[in-house]
# Entry
Amino acid sequence: MVKTVEEINQKIREGNVRVVTAAEMKEIVAELGAEDAAKEVDVVTTGTFGAMCSSGAFFNFGHADPPIKMQRVWLNDVEAYTGVAAVDAYLGATQLSETKEMYGGGHVIEELVEGKEVELKATGYGTDCYPRKELYTEISLEDVNQAVMVNPRNAYQRYNAATNSSNRILRTYMGTLLPNFGNVTFAGTGEISPLNNDPEYRTIGVGTRIFLCGAKGYIIGEGTQHAPPYGTLMVKGNLKEMKAEYMKAAYFPGYGATLFVGIGIPIPILDAEMARFTAVRNGEIETKILDFGVPRRDRPVVRKVTYEELISGKVEINGEEVRVSPLSSFYMAEKIMKELKRQIERGKFFLTSPVDRIPKEGASKPMRQKEVKIVKSVMVKAHTIPPHTSIEEAARLMIEKGLNHLPVVEEGRLVGIITSWDIAKAVAKDKTGSVAEIMTRRVVVTHPDEPVDIAARKMEQNDISALPVVDSKRRVLGIVTSEDLSKLIAR
# Structure
């Protein structure tokens, strides 16, 4: 027996379509067999909900009066990419705020979907047709012309799990990994995840309509790093139609911001083969546990494991039982499957046939690169002062130590910075108070593992000559100056 997508859509119109979730389909195939299950069931709904870092949104803000060609733009102090058009920008979920801790692009997107206003700040270089050079305002989703979620890599078919053989805690995109194989973390929803239910990409392809964060979305191609059976999807949808309950911004300590994205894909049961695909069990889906305690290029496979083992909450490593925790929400994935099922049954969601197939083969190659110098290799010790330090004391310290920059620290965290130029201006104006009165509070910073060329670009873009080096909690680790970078280039 063979069905078509159009025949299934006709059943949806008539109100007699049979829709089941991927969880329910396993039992139906086990009881009836693939042939009879294909006759009985028309659509299987799938779901996944996890941290999908490769997510973001395009915005068209509309033209100001007088107009501006946005060279740089920030939403709640999170910078968006502006190399698109005059008032278009792409905000990435993982881009971090320049002023707010544990906050990034994913948080901005979530707040907009919640109906909140965010601060828009833009700068331009001025032209005859775009004379404006600065813009400050507040916007909501209602104010922008378009807000389109475009996610380059989502819904991994399966994902490598992570553990840590080293003797220290590691903060990673797979969460916190305890030392000496103290835990294992994994991502993906296994047997209910979309691509595991159509591993040949017969019905999931370019043009497939999907459930994306509560709205109708579409697959626009294979995702970046697509390497079956570690397949990925590139998806899009209208941000204005999405619901905040199906997305969640998050911050992974020591890694950064991300966005949990809810995706559901309906699988049309065209024949017995599709019924067999949707009967897949967690025990049949294998992945690898990688040791994050070893540098990435040499990261070894600790062991192969099935999703059934991972979901059980414990696995065995070197004869020891190790606890396992998921980074994906099975509760939300099931909620998405059920909501998509209800929408199809009520005639509110119709299926589409792919206009092109997603490749069944692919590879994810490492970057070909030359040696990269990082900030840690050039930073020097930073002399810090508290905000109540007098301007006179700060000036004396700068002269004694031969310094031009003093990071200002309160309760162990960076709160500002003063320069010799700040001191000179204060003296010229006969100011005698504390450095808190003259310090720059919005400090541009760098991190120890950031490439030095990025640090240099930050200095150039912000017209500054030094960057405090901070950790994830904004504790000052050192400072890097334009003089340090000049010495590196000379060497």
Observations:
- The first helix runs from residue 5 to 14.
